[in-house]
Write a structure and sequence with these properties.
Blueprint lengths: L3 E2 L3 H8 L7 E6 L1 H15 L2 H7 E5 L5 H8 L10 E5 L10 H13 L3 H14 L9 H6 L2 H8 L5 H17 L11 H9 L6 E6 L7 H9 L1 E5 L7 H22 L2 E2 L1 H11 L3 H15 L4 E2 L1 H24 L3 H13 L4 H21 L7 H8 L5 H7 L4 H11 L4 H19 L5 H13 L11
Parallel strand pairs: 1-6, 2-5, 2-6, 3-4, 4-5, 7-8
Length: 457
Amino acid sequence: MPTIQCKELAKVLEGLTKGHYWPVYLLFGQEYLTNRAVDALLDVLLTEEQRAFNLVVIDGDRENVADTVHFLNSFPLLTGSKVVLVKNTRVFHSRITAKDLLSEARSYYQKGSLSEALKSLQRMCASVRLGAEETGVGFLLEMDDVQWEAAFGLQRTSEDAAMIKRLVEHGLDQGMSRSIAEVSDDILDAALDRGFAGKNVLVLSANVVDRRKRLFKLLEKVGLVVDCSVGEGDSKKAKDQKQELIVQQLREQLLEAGKKLSPDAHKRFLEYAGVDLRQIGSELEKLITYVGDRKIIELGDVEAVVCSSREEAVYEVMDTLANRDFGRSCLVLEKLWDQGFFPLAVLKVIGDEVRRLLWAKGRFHQGRVTYNQFQREMHKQLDDADKEVIGQMAPYGIFKLIEYADNFTEDELVFALGRVLDTDIALKTGAPDPKGELVDLLADICLESHGKQKLPF
């Protein structure tokens, strides 16, 4: 059957309930949409009771095609079909997908998901068959620009080099130096020709695929391929497609919950919830829970739930930064970005927090004190010059600020302030990737970059 779009899947699933099924399904594209589509498919293929016994789930990073075929050639414990799901399969990776895998790594990195970003790079290495010994983090560190371009057909920017260096450090710290082995599609190719035992079904999900591969073309003939891709970039077509998906998701989620958004609430929700499909789903779920039995979600509900989340995100970025939590800082940055904060506005939040931490570090040298001690002895010492830095901050907030300052040395905070100024100049002079500039700033503040010996690249 020809490849169908994600929005066409619901109609196809109606046919599955009548007993029409394919032995293999491939669902690929945008991660959130793909996962939703896979869940919808599994709901049709298996009952809740069957899931416990007839569903085999395989992580694509540990994928062994021979094992997958073995599962497909054995009969299920309960009557019905056995379903083997390979999540994020790599059988469709090739040199062609290297560009997409690198983009995937950048996206995870900007969200603070360092382990996932590193996995994307390791998958990229495995996809061009560099050899298992060359797909660990050590090899990524040792590759120069010439080797990189020869292997992947891509130029490596200075931003990519800095990202890889950070990911290598993270991988070594977390014990993620193991390689991701190559996968061969030949065994699966032959198994599809022979057929599976009984009515067993193979479900493959993937973020990126090379449509030119013979296996992909074979699946289009003998199975069902569902394209869940979303246009990237700022083109009108990409924006229109994203908007259509957002509206579709709202409609489906509200219909499932038996709720409706009033026109004013609908408009304000889209203004504040952002454009990330996962974020939109999460915020809408909060709203649905908030209104309880009411069928109509009003403007006041959106302002009480979603708009307050926007304000909370500002305070959260300050908290995560002060705790040197790079991963959470990036997640909050992503939330602010999706909610439409301008880069310079986000930078101001970060810069103000660094200045307050530097003030606390220089103003108080007594070490750890209790809150009662602070109120009794230290709070009274604050003068007008101090209040120019901390504003109308409550006493407990100032006390916490002093505690947070202990997470940094004075040199680190001076370095961080210098990086804030560098980023300010970059943003005001037309940096091509404003979000990347902010992620790099958070990394330099949270990951103790100051004074670290630079690794060779």
